[in-house]
Design goal:
The chain is an alpha+beta fold. It folds into 2 domains: 1-90, no CATH class; 91-124, no CATH class. It is 35% helix and 15% strand. The chain is built from 4 helices and 4 strands. It has helices at residues 14-17, 33-38, 78-86, 97-120; strands spanning 12-13, 51-52, 54-60, 71-77. The strands form 2 sheets. It has a two-stranded antiparallel ribbon with strand order 1-2. Strands 3-4 form a two-stranded antiparallel sheet. The longest helix is centred in the C-terminal third of the chain and has 24 residues, at 97-120. It is elongated and about 60 Å long.
Amino acid sequence: MYCICCKEDTVLPYDIKYPDSGISNDNDAKLTEVDLLWEKTPSFSINNAMVDNGIIQIIDAGYGSTHDGDKLIIAICDDCIKENLENSNLLYYGNGEDDIEKSKKLYNRKKNLDILIKKENPIE
């Protein structure tokens, strides 16, 4: 699947990258990438699939968005995750208190710098 940041087709369900390890349907046929992305059974969706080189998740658009109620499949590659965590465009939510606190500090720093820049250069 294409990374939402770098637009490269590098994030793949593990079963596509390594087909001999893959899941299959009732007819014992290997599922394609498209099949895996939209597969919805009681025991499997792309949300709980192994992914190579990044994250693929189904996200729910909340109320207030022009897409509220929609469900979207997005992917982000490992390189873009690393870069976007460092510049606080992507924030930690789990994985330990130290990572969360670091993410909060980076985010607050960026927000405060943006506010200062906007005050110094107001749009006319």
